[in-house]
Amino acid sequence: MPYITTGQENSGPIEIYYEDHGSGTPVVLIHGFPLDCHSWEKQVPVLLEAGHRVVAYDRRGFGRSSRPATGYDYDTFAADLNILMERLDLREVVLVGFSMGTGEVTRYLGMYGSARVRKAVLLAPLQPYLVDEHGGIDPGVLTGIQKSIADDRFAYLKTFLDDFYNVDVLGGERISAEAWQASWNVAAAASAKATYDCVPTWGTDFRADLARFDVPLLVVQGDEDRILPIESTGRRLGEFVRNLRFEVVEGGPHNIGWTHPEQVNRALMEFVD
């Protein structure tokens, strides 16, 4: 199991777990909260079959990566990604982020530029700025989520994942009880502190980062996204990025990569190749 070291906390290294498969033009996949890199299982085989090198990793605090007590902010997340890109010497990369992972994509391009990146993909994006004055959420919502996590993290994850998949509408059709349970198991196994500390990052202002985008961008989002409503996020990105292709998945929930892989994979492959 490969790891890269991105820092040190007291007596132990901070290590990021990653998987690196295939050959060809590299595609780096960055997962959403509160899952891990294996949540891309409906995309990885398609990318490999198309002849791409696929790199996916677990964000610090999640999956098999280290669980430090600090570093849950997008500057640090982007720094972790940058170390991965440099250690593996990845070039001509397509960066693909889902949900919280769109923050790494956006902050990376804002901080480090596009010397190693040729295209970017945001699935169910956080951007441009979730708590701004133009239809964004009240910052108190994030505080309330943290309280729910502190009170009973496992109960909160149940509520979150129900909305993650729109289980009341799509349960049994596009998300099975077993797949939902698998997501809950992964989420419950994550660091409690990381789960709590990540929530304020959802309110990060990415507008300055978006202004630095100089690579083609694909945005795909469900129009029934209950976690990051499309009117406050995806539909606004055209105001900030010129070279943008925007695709809407009709009836799609937040995790369209699982529930609507046929549409997501088609859009992804048409854009990546």
Question: What does this protein look like?
Answer:
The longest helix has 27 residues, at 139-165. The chain has helices at residues 44-49, 74-87, 101-112, 139-165, 167-170, 177-189, 192-198, 207-210, 256-259, 261-272, and strands at residues 3-9, 12-21, 26-30, 53-57, 93-98, 117-123, 217-222, 244-249. The radius of gyration is 17 Å and the shape is globular. Helix 2 crosses helix 3 and helix 4 runs antiparallel to helix 6 (177-189). The chain has a single domain (3-272), classed as Alpha/Beta hydrolase fold, catalytic domain (Rossmann fold). The protein has an eight-stranded mixed β-sheet, with helices on both faces. By secondary structure, the chain is an alpha/beta fold. A hairpin with a 2-residue loop joins strand 1 (3-9) and strand 2 (12-21). The mean pLDDT is 97. Helices cover 38% and strands 19% of the residues. The protein has ten helices and eight strands. InterPro entries: AB_hydrolase_1, AB_hydrolase_fold, AB_hydrolase_sf, Epox_hydrolase-like. It holds the Pfam family Abhydrolase_1.
Unreliable runs, pLDDT <50, ≥5 residues?
none
Task: Provide the CATH architecture.
Answer: 3-Layer(aba) Sandwich
Would you count the extended β strands for me? 8
Structural class: alpha/beta
Q: What spatial order of strands do you see in the largest sheet?
A: 1-2-4-3-5-6-7-8
CA radius of gyration: 17 Å
How widely separated are the two ends?
29 Å
**Broad CATH class:** Alpha Beta
Overall pLDDT: 97
CATH names the topology as: Rossmann fold
* CATH H-level superfamily: Alpha/Beta hydrolase fold, catalytic domain
Q: Give the tally of structural domains.
A: 1
Pfam families: Abhydrolase_1
GO cellular component, one term: membrane
Organism: Nonomuraea cavernae
Protein name: Arylesterase
